[in-house]
Design a protein that fits this description.
Sulfite Reductase Hemoprotein, domain 1, 3 domains, Sulfite Reductase Hemoprotein, domain 2, about 10% strand, 3-stranded parallel sheet
Length: about 230
């Protein structure tokens, strides 16, 4: 809903600065940018003072970890921006641009598999700030998640990064692979093993089940019928 006395042109202008109209009033919510949701104690105090001095005292948080101070009159917008600038804070985060980067607390969380703070800060400086003047066809959202628990839903953003654990598996010895292939061949074709080259005759009783050949941590990856061998089917 348009403001009551502020012209559409002025409303559009301040929206580009990060000020969104409070419907039915001439007041605006000033959106303050954070770097992945982190602010200092001094910045927090500055925002609280600005909310009391220029707004209605209410502070809200957006889904992209920015902070909005509500109830700022149109003629106080520049004063508000100057006041928060004393602690290095700026407004923005609107329009068809790269939006503020969202990150979970993977750096400190017990489940974190990557340094989500450092990575999201690098992305913030390189893309949110670096591409701030680049107009896009649509707003572009980026999120960094520290693990597959997916708390910040990176997969719902335009670009999402999710920390993963890389398994460290020892390769199977060649002999184990040979026996696995032979057993699979017998299961699929119902044939007796012609395994003279592997040291076994062609009778089922002479072929050991795979669970005796493969390390225990490999057996869980194979079907029970294969582990037992075709002579157990």
């Amino acid at each position: 809903m348009a403001t009551l006395t502020v012209s559409p042109t002025d409303e559009k202008r301040v929206k580009a600065l990060g000020f969104l109209s409070n419907k039915g009033t001439d007041n605006f919510s000033g959106r303050i940018i954070t770097v992945n949701g982190k602010i200092t104690a001094a910045q927090q105090q500055c925002i609280a003072e600005a909310a009391e001095k220029f707004g209605n005292g209410n502070i809200t948080f957006t889904t992209r970890l920015t902070i909005e101070v509500q109830g700022i009159p149109y003629d106080k917008i520049e004063d508000f921006r100057a006041y928060i600038a004393r602690e290095g804070l700026v407004t923005g985060g609107t329009g068809s641009l790269v939006r503020p980067v969202v990150a979970c607390k993977g750096t400190t969380c017990q489940y974190g598999l990557l340094d989500s703070f450092a990575l999201s800060e690098e992305i913030h400086h390189r893309f949110y700030e670096g591409y701030h003047t680049v107009r896009l066809p649509h707003k572009f959202k980026i999120a960094v998640g520290g693990c597959p628990n997916n708390c910040v839903k990176p997969d719902l953003n335009d670009l999402g990064i999710i920390g993963q654990r890389i398994p460290n598996l020892d390769p199977l010895p060649r002999l184990h692979i040979d026996f696995l292939n032979l057993h699979l061949h017998r299961v699929r074709n119902g044939l007796a093993l012609q395994g003279g080259g592997a040291g076994f005759g062609d009778t089922h009783s002479q072929v050991p089940p795979l669970h005796r050949l493969l390390p225990g941590n490999r057996c869980s990856l194979l079907p029970a019928a294969v582990l037992a061998g075709p002579n157990r089917l």
